[in-house]
Each structure stands twice: as structure tokens, then as C-alpha cells.
Amino acid sequence: MYSSESMDVILQRMLDRVPSGIDKREGSIIYDALAPAAAELAQLYMELELNDSLSFADTATGEYLTRIASQFGVNRRAATYAKRAALFYGAGDSPMAVVSGSRFAKDRLVYIVGQEMGTGEYMVTCEQEGSIGNERFGELLPLQYVEGLARAELGEVLVPGVDEEGDEALRQRYYAAVNEPAFGGNVAQYKAILNDMDGVGASKIYPVWNGGGTVKAAIISGDWREPSSTLLSEVQTKLDPSGSSGEGLGLAPIGHQVTVAGVSESAVNVETTLTLALGTTVGQVQDEVEEVMAAYMLDIRRTWAEQSQLVVRVAQVDARLLGVEGVEDVNGTALNGAAENMVLGGDEVPVMGTVTLHVQ
């Protein structure tokens, strides 16, 4: 391992090797001759230390971590495109058909019309990759003239788009692949298959959940919410399209009867009493409090795959509320009407419900 040293330390070590009878003071010939070399050596040591850290999985980042992980067959997940439902209406607000491949815009995002799901309802795909395609809702504007079209609306997220995998997520998958090899239809293999599918954020596997040969695969979507029926259907088809015969027609091993299910969402209604700073009103903190609570629920949902069951904790709610500017104290916090932690089922995840604030 290399350890970077400052120029002053290196220069002093070099000067210490010069005979004492020679003038070594700053500005002397020997000092001015050695100083540039010491600066270059200090830079070299820093670059060696950086190169060293980029050579190991626990400290590597970016392209270097990608290359280390790929040596073990763990590839960084690329960003994916959001698939959404869109509704199209003609005169009299009646559903109408549109041509596949038509392009519609929402703000600066463009969505391409694809598969028809019902009269006037289509699956549309965002042209821009990443989670940004999940965020907009409301009116769509056609980029070309569509005869008879009165209005178009962008609806629910069917398969969420996700951003390129970050370093820490890739690092953890690398560790899992090395420490828990996927093989022969074991739990690790199921997780590896499921977590690589577009739109899937994480998964839990329940072996022999309904007798020998049966497997239940529970998933959460890539935006850490309850998966849509469209996403569940896609995953079921890829994994085990028969669902009960065990014929091995999908990615699941022969003899495995796989049932794909999704997490269910439970709304968490928060009620609490705040002591606010002088001159601060409830209206001034309401929005930030709701943002903080939504972020806490998201943090919990992200840990679903590693927990047997999730818990929304009153102490955590209080601690996060105390971080809101203008909030000096919190007391009497209740979750869904009870002043205690909220314990969820194995495949339940919390989402923010209502936030009711009182002032002391």
C-alpha cells in the first residue's frame, strides 16, 4: 500500500541526506535543486495511492469498480426506460385509437405510443432513460398532428424507469455474488435473475412456500413502490410462464413452480404536536415535514429485501422532524392513531399517508 506524503516531508528527508557542511537553507543551491524533485515525488505518491485504491473492490469507484465487478460476471445495471399508461380521447371525451409509434410530449419528455391495452389506452415508453420518466403526470401534447384527438393524458407507471446503478449498489451485488454464489436454482440465483429484470428494485424468495417444488418470488418495483400488474405479469412470464406445471419454460429450473407476487403498500398517517420557533407557523413547516416523512418511508422501503418485516419507528419520526428548520420540539407522535411503532407484514411496505400537525 502506498501512503501519500507532503512535499515538505519528502524535501526534508532529501535534505537530511545532504552532508552537514553544505548550505541547506531555503534559497540555497541544494535546496532549490531538490525542491522541484520533492514536489514531483509528492504528486507521484498521491497518484500511486489513488491507483492503489482503485484496484480493490472496497475502495474502487466508477469505471474501475465496473471493471472489477465484471470479472466475476457482475455488470453495472444500465438505466432503463419508463413504461407508462396513456389515455387518448376524441370528440365528446370518447376513447379513441392512435397510431403505434406516435410521439407525445410532457414538459421536455417524449413518450412513444406502443402496445394497446384497451380502448383508447396504450402503453407508452419514455424516450429518455432513467427515473425521470416516472415523475410527470397529466396532459400529453402530440408532436405531430393527430386527426380527431381532443386530449391525451399520461397515467400510471407500469414499469418504472431506473437510473444507472450507483457504486454502492454495484459493490454490494459484487460482494453477494462472491460470497453467495448463484447455482442450481438456489435463493441467490433467483435473486440474481429477478433483480436484473427491468423495473424490479429488489426481491425476496420463499422456497417450498406451498409444498415441495413451489417457490414464491416477491418483488418491489424499481421506484420502490408496489409493482403494477403489468410488471408482475412480465416478471411471471420471464420466470415461469406456466406458473404451475414446472416445465422449465422460463428462467426458473425444471420442476420449480414459481408464483410471482408484489409487495403491498400500507399508508402511514402521522399525527404529532410541535413546538415551533418564535415567529414560525405550521404552514411554513408543513411541506418540509411531509417531504421528510416521505423520505423516511422511502428509506424504509429500500431495506425491504434485507428485513423479515419492516418497522416504522416513532423515535425515527421524531428525530427527523427535529431536523426541520423551525421545529424545536416534538411530542405525542402517533402512527395511524397509535403512539407506538408500526410493525408491517413480511411483504408490506410503508408509504406516506396524511400528516397532521398540532402546535403546542
Polypeptide structure, described:
With 360 residues, the protein is of the alpha+beta class. The chain folds into 4 domains: 7-70, no CATH class; 83-159, no CATH class; 182-262; 266-359. Helix content is 30%, strand content 28%. It has 8 helices and 14 strands. The protein has a 6-stranded antiparallel β-barrel. The protein has a 3-stranded mixed beta sheet with strand order 7-8-9, covered by helices on one side. Strands 12-10-14 form a 3-stranded mixed beta sheet, covered by helices on one side. Strand 5 and strand 6 (151-159) form a beta hairpin. The N and C termini lie far apart (58 Å). The model has no long low-confidence stretch (mean pLDDT 92). Residues 182-261 form the Baseplate J-like central domain. Belongs to the Mu gp47/PBSX XkdT family. This is Baseplate J/gp47 family protein. Residues 268-357 form the Baseplate J-like C-terminal domain.
Task: Give the arrangement of secondary structure elements.
Blueprint: H1 7-16, H2 29-53, H3 62-70, E1 83-89, E2 103-106, E3 109-118, E4 121-126, E5 138-142, E6 151-159, H4 167-179, H5 187-195, E7 200-207, E8 214-221, H6 229-239, E9 257-262, E10 264-276, H7 282-302, E11 311-312, H8 314-322, E12 327-335, E13 342-343, E14 348-359
Parallel strand pairs: 8-9, 10-14
Antiparallel strand pairs: 1-4, 1-6, 2-3, 2-5, 3-4, 5-6, 7-8, 10-12, 11-13
Helix pairs in contact: 1-2, 3-4, 7-8
